[in-house]
Design goal:
Number of domains of chain B: 2
Largest sheet of chain A: 2 strands, antiparallel
Largest sheet of chain B: 7 strands, mixed
Helix content of chain B: 25-40%
Order of helices and strands of chain A: HHEEHHHHHH
Oligomer: heterodimer
Shape of chain A: globular
Radius of gyration of chain B: 18 Å
Number of helices of chain A: 8
Strand content of chain A: under 5%
Number of helices of chain B: 9
Number of strands of chain A: 2
Radius of gyration of chain A: 18 Å
CATH superfamily of the largest domain in chain B: P-loop containing nucleotide triphosphate hydrolases
Number of domains of chain A: 1
Number of strands of chain B: 11
Shape of chain B: globular
Strand order of the largest sheet of chain A: 1-2
CATH architecture of the largest domain in chain B: 3-Layer(aba) Sandwich
């Protein structure tokens, strides 16, 4: 992960691409969903998760493409460490990047839509963190699996979204239950628990299947 | 601490298919510690696939590879610790400096005193003065020398090199040959794929020729490696498992 951060700090290409993309998404949505200075109720929740999903997909594709350059992925797989550890390292790097994007997205949505996300800050952050884990976990596995495929740019979203859509829907509903005029904390906790359940399932499957998927 | 070690690698009836394409077909080989073995053959003959199988990165479709008495599947990370692999694509991070690339590998392989190990490797690669520069600005030869040091940084027992002489000038080639001899004296088993037959002639203990995924006989005689190889390629050849140079 430290190596990934160092490489990214030199090029900053993933950071700039994903944050600009996410910020643009929020800006475009704000024109669509804010009329006469009044935002459409609940639109913020959908905007945040859509922006995160698409920005995350950009980061996922690039994260493993970088390892493919000069076949560095093979060098990593030759290392005398558990291959699951390589997966976890890449996952943490992607999550860190998505965390930065989330901070930017939440800031812009809060400004454009005048939304108070942090009235229940702990629950809101928990939703974001668990949602990011679930999305990045499945995404990192597929991105690694497709790294050598020539049609990876097409296949990654085709595989990623059908599987992560429950996490995204739970994230939207959980966020919505926190920012509606009368927040429903029990409902928010239910969605949080559901995302956590998916996280456990996705993480178990990813750690279990990473090594056989990466052996040619 | 790694307790596992081996003196011999035995490839038994290994085949590898990619869909309908057969990259390796019933390949059998015995490789001993201290040997320098060359994999020769035309493009697409299966040399890189065989190196991939020996490195454990490519699983055989059938057959098995034993390291000492043990199968690679059972050994995992303990075996990978003993293998150094220089791929044709060099496996370097262009955004990182020469020092950072070596330091990353040294730490990944758990080397003690990585700073000293990296400084030694930079010296051997003749890159000490450009250690802090990003690899993206290096010539192919410089990257090749760096990648070689990266693949040897953990003092492996089995050294696998894919086209190690690519991009090297005369001085670097001589240094690499000397290095291979030294590694062989130290008991390393070295297997490399190459098209540079004139250079390989002075390095190899024996040559294995692959044609369409099968091991083929190199004609006997006292001619140069190149002339015997050319005779084989133009005249065909029967099946045989090993050929002493």
């Amino acid at each position: 992960m430290r190596k990934d951060i160092r490489v990214e700090s030199r090029s900053r290409e993933m950071l700039y691409t994903t944050t600009f993309f996410a910020a643009s998404c929020v800006l475009v949505f704000s024109f669509a969903f804010v009329r006469s200075g009044r935002p459409v109720e609940g639109a913020e929740a959908g905007i945040i998760w859509v922006a995160l999903a698409y920005a995350g997909q950009l980061a996922l594709g690039r994260a493993f493409e970088r390892e493919l350059h000069q076949d560095a992925l093979r060098g990593l797989l030759m290392a005398p460490v558990e291959r699951a550890a390589i997966f976890v390292g890449k996952l943490l790097g992607i999550m860190l990047l998505m965390g930065v994007v989330e901070a930017v997205v939440v800031f812009f949505v809060a400004v454009f839509f005048s939304t108070a996300f942090f009235d229940y800050g702990l629950l809101f952050i928990s939703l974001l963190v668990t949602g990011t884990i679930g999305f990045a976990c499945v995404g990192a596995l597929f991105a690694a699996m497709l790294a050598r495929s020539q049609s990876r740019a097409v296949l990654l979203p085709v595989l990623l979204y059908p599987i992560t859509v429950p996490v995204l829907i739970a994230g939207v509903n959980g966020t919505l239950s926190l920012i509606q005029p009368e927040p429903n904390l029990d409902l928010a906790r239910f969605w949080l628990a559901l995302i956590a359940f998916f996280d456990v399932v996705f993480m178990t499957l990813a750690l279990w299947t990473f090594e056989p998927l990466m052996t040619e | 601490m790694n307790l596992f070690d081996f003196q011999q690698v035995t490839v038994s009836n290994v085949s590898r298919h990619y869909g309908r394409r057969r990259a390796l077909s019933s390949v059998s080989l015995d490789l001993q510690a201290g040997e320098v073995v060359g994999l020769l053959g035309p493009n697409g003959s299966g040399k890189s696939t065989l190196l991939g199988v020996l490195s454990t990165l490519i699983a055989p479709s059938s057959g098995q590879v034993r390291y000492g008495e043990q199968l690679s599947r059972a050994l995992g990370a303990d075996l990978r610790r003993l293998i150094g692999f220089l791929s044709h694509d060099l496996q370097l991070y262009p955004e990182l400096s020469a020092r950072e690339n070596l330091d990353f590998s040294a730490r990944l392989y758990g080397r003690q005193e990585p700073l000293a190990v990296v400084n030694n490797a930079l010296g051997r690669a003749r890159l000490a003065e450009r250690a802090e520069e990003p690899v993206a600005g290096f010539s192919r030869g410089m990257r090749q020398r760096l990648a070689l040091e990266r693949s040897l940084i953990h003092e492996p027992r089995l050294v696998l090199l894919d086209e190690p002489f690519t991009g090297l000038d005369d001085r670097s080639t001589s240094e690499l040959i000397e290095r291979l001899h030294q590694l062989s004296k130290d008991g390393c088993l070295i297997v490399f794929a190459t098209h540079d037959l004139d250079i390989a002639d002075g390095v190899l203990d024996r040559a294995v020729v692959l044609r369409s995924g099968r091991i083929t006989e190199l004609p006997n005689g006292h001619g140069s490696l190149r002339s015997r190889y050319r005779e084989l390629v133009t005249g065909g050849g029967s099946m045989e498992q090993r050929t002493d140079v």
